[in-house]
Amino acid sequence: MRQHSGIGVLDKAVGVLHAVAEKPCSLTELCSRTGLPRATAHRLAVGLEVHRLLTRDTDGLWCPGPGLAELAATANDPLVSAAALVLPRLREITGESVQLYRREGTQRICVAAMEPPTGLRDTVLVGARLPMSAGSGAKVLLAWADPQTQRAVLPDAAFGERVLLEVRRRGWAQSAAEREPGVASVAAPVRDGNGSVIAAISVSGPIDRMGRRPGARWAADLLAAAEALHKRL
């Protein structure tokens, strides 16, 4: 579930943007994804289209507009900026794919990623939305999430509350073939200046290389990278 600002029309407009970002959609599909009445969804989508935040493709479906890319090009994200300095070293040390995830509601979003130059790799594209129900990054983000989010995710998760308690005690999480068959990963929390967990940094790759207990090999380096991000924030 997304955060609400208390400004109804703004929250609805942002909901429309997120719905269209999932996949280009018709008005009927937009109503289904947002739960908005048809007239409201149409009015907001047309308004966002005027501001070039939405556009329509050749099939008449709404999709993200060029205005979003123009705004993003001028945005300054301290976390992503810090990741650009820390992730290359982590990739060099591990020789595996590295990612940085933020939580949004009951999903996690990849906000930064780097892959090894050669060999098999676990490719996660920047902007990809993954479930919070499997994988080491999901465990880390859910371990420090609010109780409401935990209750929403855990019934369908590949792990239980006891695993989250262990993640909080140990300070990192690992997984093997949870999110994708043949893929293992290890993740650690990234904290802001106030000590709150705002992201998860992860190393992932083939189980044949990472092993079924990748934390034994890479947890220390991952925790060091997470601390480096914390200091830069």
From TrEMBL:
Source domain of life: Bacteria
Keyword Signal recorded: no
UniProt-listed SUPFAM superfamilies: GAF domain-like, Winged helix' DNA-binding domain
Question: Which Pfam families has this protein been placed in?
Answer: HTH_IclR, IclR_C
A Gene Ontology molecular function term for this protein is: DNA binding
* InterPro entries on file: GAF-like_dom_sf, HTH_MetabolicPath_Reg, Tscrpt_reg_IclR_C, Tscrpt_reg_IclR_N, WH-like_DNA-bd_sf, WH_DNA-bd_sf
Tell me which Gene Ontology terms the entry assigns under biological process.
negative regulation of DNA-templated transcription
Q: Which SMART domains match?
A: HTH_ICLR
Q: Which UniProt keywords apply?
A: DNA-binding, Transcription, Transcription regulation
Specify the signal sequence span.
none
Q: Which Gene3D superfamilies match?
A: 3.30.450.40, Winged helix-like DNA-binding domain superfamily/Winged helix DNA-binding domain
Q: Which residues form the HTH iclR-type domain?
A: 7-66
Q: Where is the IclR-ED domain?
A: 67-233
> What's the protein name?
IclR family transcriptional regulator
**Per the UniProt entry, what species is this protein from, by scientific name?**
Rhodococcus oxybenzonivorans
